[in-house]
Input
Amino acid sequence: MSILRSAATTTFLLSVISTSALGAPSQLHLIVGGEAYDGPPRFEVSFDGKVLGEAAVEAAIDTGAAGRFADAPDKSPYVQGFAFTIPEALFQPGGEVRVRLVNEAYGGDGSNRDRNLFLAAVTVNGRAVTVSGLTTRGTSADVDSELVGEFLVLRDGNMEGVSRAPAGGWPLPEALADLALETAPAVAVAADTVRAPKAPAVVAAVRRPDAPAAATDTIETASLDPDPEAVPVSACTRDELYNVVGFNENSNDLTPRLEARLDQIIADIGLQKCRVLVTGYSSRQGAHATNALFAIERAQNVLGYLRANGLSFEKAIATGAGATAQFGPSFSANRRVVITVTP
Output
C-alpha cells in the first residue's frame, strides 16, 4: 500500500518544507556478507559524499577454518543487516550510497585466507536496490564489477560498492512523506491507503514465549502520534509478544487474514501508548538478499498498518531479522512478523 510520487514532486516538496518540520531522519539499510581473516571485515558507508559511519561483519565466514564465502552452500549465516541514520540536512532524493572495505587483509597466495565484503542490497527509507543496480567503482581507476551470486564483491579499499538512487529518487522519510501528502494537493492518494480506525475486537492476551535473539539490523522510524487533544492515550501496562503469521511466498503484502490479526492486536493494546518493536522474518527459501528485504518490508508494512489504524506509540521501531528457520521446518511458519509491546 504505497503512494507513488514523481521525482519532480518530491524535489518540490523538499524545497518548500522547512527543516524544522522534517521531524524524521532518513534510514539507510545494508545487507552485507563477509569473509574474515585475523578478524572480521570492517566497512565505511557514505551518502551523497558524506561518511555516515563504520561497522564490522562479525558473522563473516572464517576463511582459515571454514572456507570461502563463494563456496558456502548456505550463505545466510555469514550475512548481516546494518542500519545507518542519514541526517536531515544531508538527505537528497538523488544521493549516492557508497560502501568501502577499510581493513583489507590477505594471507598470501595459496593460503586461502582473505578478508572481503559482499554487498547484496541497499535500502533508503524502504526503497531497495539489489545487486542488479549496484556497481563497483575504483578509487584510482575504474574496475569491473565482480559478482558472487546475488552479492557484489569488494576485495580491498581501492574499490567501492556504489548504489545510485533508483528511478524517481529515494523516497522521503515516512513522517515527512505523510506531511508532504498534506502539503501537496497535486498528489493523488488511492482510496485504500487511508483507513478509518476499526471497531474494537475481543482478543485474548498472548503470553510471551522465549524471545528470539536480537536482530542486528534495525530500522527506526519516527512515531506519528495522533493529536493528544483529539485522541486520549494512557500509560502502557502491556508486556506482550504477538506473532503475525500468514505472509504469502515472495510477498510483503498484508492480506485480509493478516489485517484481521493486526486488528485484534490494535484492539488489545487500545489507547495505551507503548514501546513497540516490530521484527520481520522470512523463510530460507530463495535468495538471501531478497529474503532480507522481504523481512524488513513486512515489518515496515505492519508498523504502517498499526499507525494508520489508531495506535499511539511511546517509541516504534521496524526491524528485519532476515531469513530464519527458528519457527519450524515449514517455510510458511517462518514468513512472519513478531510484535513486542512493552511499557
